[in-house]
Amino acid sequence: MNMKSPLTLLFTICTFLLYSSAELDGSLTYIWPLPSKSSSGNDTLSVDPELSLVVGGKGGDSSIIKDGFDRYKKIIFKHSGRSYPVNKRSVFDIGILKIAVLSDNEELQLGADESYLLLVEKRNGQSIIGEAYIEANTVYGALRGLETFSQLCAFDYETKTVKIYKAPWYIVDKPRFAYRGLLLDTSRHYLPINVIKQIIESMSYAKLNVLHWHIIDEQSFPLEVPSYPNLWKGSYTKWERYTVEDAYDIVNFAKMRGINVMAEVDIPGHAESWGAGYPDLWPSPSCREPLDVAKNFTFDVISGILTDLRKIFPFGLFHLGGDEVNTVTLNGSISDRLLELYIACEAMTHEMTGVPNDQLKSNTASPGHSLLIVVFYYMKKDLIKDGHIMVSMPANGNCQSSRLLDHNMTTKDAYQYFVLRAQEIAISKGWTPVNWEETFNTFASNLNPRTIVHNWLGGGVCAKAVAKGFRCIFSNQGFWYLDHLDVPWDGVYKAEPLEGINDTSMQELVIGGEVCMWAETADTSRMWSKREAISSGNITLTALPRLHYFRCLLNRRGVQAAPVTNDYARQPPTGPASCYEQ
Amino acid sequence: MNMKSPLTLLFTICTFLLYSSAELDGSLTYIWPLPSKSSSGNDTLSVDPELSLVVGGKGGDSSIIKDGFDRYKKIIFKHSGRSYPVNKRSVFDIGILKIAVLSDNEELQLGADESYLLLVEKRNGQSIIGEAYIEANTVYGALRGLETFSQLCAFDYETKTVKIYKAPWYIVDKPRFAYRGLLLDTSRHYLPINVIKQIIESMSYAKLNVLHWHIIDEQSFPLEVPSYPNLWKGSYTKWERYTVEDAYDIVNFAKMRGINVMAEVDIPGHAESWGAGYPDLWPSPSCREPLDVAKNFTFDVISGILTDLRKIFPFGLFHLGGDEVNTVTLNGSISDRLLELYIACEAMTHEMTGVPNDQLKSNTASPGHSLLIVVFYYMKKDLIKDGHIMVSMPANGNCQSSRLLDHNMTTKDAYQYFVLRAQEIAISKGWTPVNWEETFNTFASNLNPRTIVHNWLGGGVCAKAVAKGFRCIFSNQGFWYLDHLDVPWDGVYKAEPLEGINDTSMQELVIGGEVCMWAETADTSRMWSKREAISSGNITLTALPRLHYFRCLLNRRGVQAAPVTNDYARQPPTGPASCYEQ
């Protein structure tokens, strides 16, 4: 039979995947993310289920170490095996894990030392170190070492004990990038505290270190702000809210896992929900976005929010948003003619769907988005990439413009004025401002030089930003927007924050990267490992089996990570199989 | 604009859902599943974060009560509020929860008494009961009462305390059906212990009481069987296994939540994986299913497995499978001509996809299934319903048939012989056998009268089974197969186990129902509540808001339950909104 439809091809591939089962080596030991330096041997060591902790160094007594050890002990000894009487414990090769933390400074900030040394070897009367040993400069480095140690431990179903294969292990490790983030958006959908904690816990498995909490947006304002107690009236319901105490709880939970929390207040273009509590923040009842730039009250509220948040969020970076502000200025090569076509498409789609124009373009989850893509596709194919519109927000009328004329401002003036004034407020509270790339794209030369530019629209932005001396975070939506479900795993894996940046001093200005939107962390730990260690060779042979293995590890720990190689992300598996093959 | 494409309609609906936001009453109190009898008032009571437990009755001292109380206390007081000094505790209306358990019998079996009484009222010097009081005959009834109590408690973001609205509450409750199950399949995909525990925990939120553990199937054999230690060589990998201790752990974890675990060993047609460890169980190396009926060794292995499992699983019911055995006998009205067409379709689909014939029909997740549906659709539309083929397995050659001739058996004889002999083994171990409906459909008059018939193929089977005196479990795949993602929530909700059964004594033979395959428990609690309380009126007005509310409750507790009204189940939401509206 000779059918060549895409359907047949798909089936052929699926069938191949279903039946290409290979026997896996039981002593296989994969570590994710890949450590900086590691060597292994051929010993197999058994680990005592009553593994005990011995601490040393100025920072060893920290509750962060003690709690971390208890957490990982539960993970390592998850399976119930036989129980052994205490006097039989000498049968195990590893009975003690020693952790030495050289510094007692527990401040968690960008650039905190996360390096560690991990040694695991057979007990030896002569050896001073012996058994299992983690050494780190800070408690956070020790936590990273604990994660790696837990990944060396495997439950052996034959003997029903935990084994470490391929010992002795000598691992010296540190991250490639200081900033390794995951964005959560709690405005478009409220995420319960428990869910946020589960995600933070899973971030620690991938050695991510920044939770970028996009708390507030135009759809809802879930956070309590004591200075302006009506603001959280903008929450979806009375139950979809975070108290100040909840926020402290999140920050503390994250700190115990070595994870910073960077809060975002996305202004002025994503703040419609603020007006539910304080309608004066809207330019007028019918014009609700951006925030009213012409009133001092607007900046009083921002200052009040930032004062309250400063007490909760000790992380030195604060995200001020600044994306997708509706001005008449366009970014890049879009022509007037094309703009007209785009506006016509958008209007038509809006009329058909009722979805607001700004959501149509940016939000792939909105019902009108696909239709807009289809309509626009026939107009200008080359501006659509992987199902996303690769242009900045077109002008379709900023409803403030007539009011702004009274103040001798254009909408673009107002945008710049707003962002710079908000930056000043953030800096006055001791924060380093982070802004989405449109601020850089639109008025780079006026931005505060401390600004960290947060890329999202596409490639090449960090190269431009660091060339002008700004620091940069890489989140190219073509690869690292987790709500873009059509990006294959290798696209996510290969995306490179330093692409096109060759000068070492400029490379250092790229502080890291961040995956945005959804809680799938498995594909993001590329930012820990060295570029040369992972970018050479055929990654289907080198990285993919290790990624499968890490997916299964996440599943075992209760994280519902989906199959890696699905054509469409987070879909259920296409048929029965081992998690090590899907 | 006048577009009437399905796409436009879809968008219109989505848009309606997005913008039909209604302000929800903060004192709203929905209970899921609906209690048997309840009355409420207009008081609002505050609950002390240091709520203490006072127990009474012969069974009050049980660790099941103590642990249950501790679990629910964490759920109820999840949000961090203000802390109150001990001497200020009198400000709270509810400081004590009294639980009286009349019996100290903790045996958990089908029909265990799960009834309870729950009273919550303002403290009153005259009242003997006072505050919050649960009374139950068994610890399991008390657990159900604790669940209901936890659903009355709501965190009030204004005062940052837990409140009970609409007090006083008087609830007298008991389940409509004794058997309220959820099937998990750990053969097609291994489920880690942690994930199974999460699902068991979430089952308790919906007052489900049987985890039907479909442990083994043709794809993999993950369970350790000490009598035949090579059996779990049929696991996908060395890591995708359950030790005997793991199984005990699951059973105990479930018991602490009042949930029975019914194990299934699906024979003879779903057991190919057994031969990985003992190839003699296969009729021949090229004919691996059904299990070899002609060897005593086959029944020795079954007996060994059942002996080992009997020690682990105290529940009186044991599932012997018996579905989809390939014989030449067909069930129902399918004609010879239609059968020929079906076989031709199946052969063609098999050739195109490489998927085995038996998977094509039954497994909607198999890549060939949709194609088979399409092909078959043009042959005989009326046998396709909601995307599923509603006929029993057609004959396409049982590979044992020529061997069976040597024993003067037809494939149908062999099927019956196998099932009945396995039933005898199970009964000899003190178990009540449960079998999938094909055994009843094929040789009802020879089935052991203790057999519980487990419906799955479609409607009307329980009516036939109880008419012949058998007990029955309802799992009509048209509604209660959770892997059939195209069934809307109201279809799931309205499906009725007693449909077509009017005689009361026959109704009593329907012990309950079960949802199969995936861990979405939110829609299944219909089996607790009385039929008349939920089947009258417009359920979109009565049940849907309560179901939304329960979905949000599950989310708050960390269960990743998806939006209720999606066209396709468990898809992400179509746009930003409150979880109370999606």
TrEMBL record, chains A, B:
It comes from the Eukaryota. It is an enzyme of class 3 (hydrolase). GO terms for biological process: carbohydrate metabolic process; glycosaminoglycan metabolic process. Coiled coil: none annotated. GO terms for molecular function: beta-N-acetylhexosaminidase activity. It catalyses: Hydrolysis of terminal non-reducing N-acetyl-D-hexosamine residues in N-acetyl-beta-D-hexosaminides. Its EC number is 3.2.1.52. GO terms for cellular component: membrane. Residues 31-152 form the Beta-hexosaminidase eukaryotic type N-terminal domain. Keywords: Glycoprotein, Glycosidase, Hydrolase, Signal. Residues 177-527 form the Glycoside hydrolase family 20 catalytic domain. Gene3D superfamilies: Chitobiase/beta-hexosaminidase domain 2-like, Glycosidases. Residues 1-22 form the signal peptide. The active site is at 324 (proton donor). The keyword Signal applies. Belongs to the glycosyl hydrolase 20 family. This is Beta-hexosaminidase. It comes from Salix dunnii.
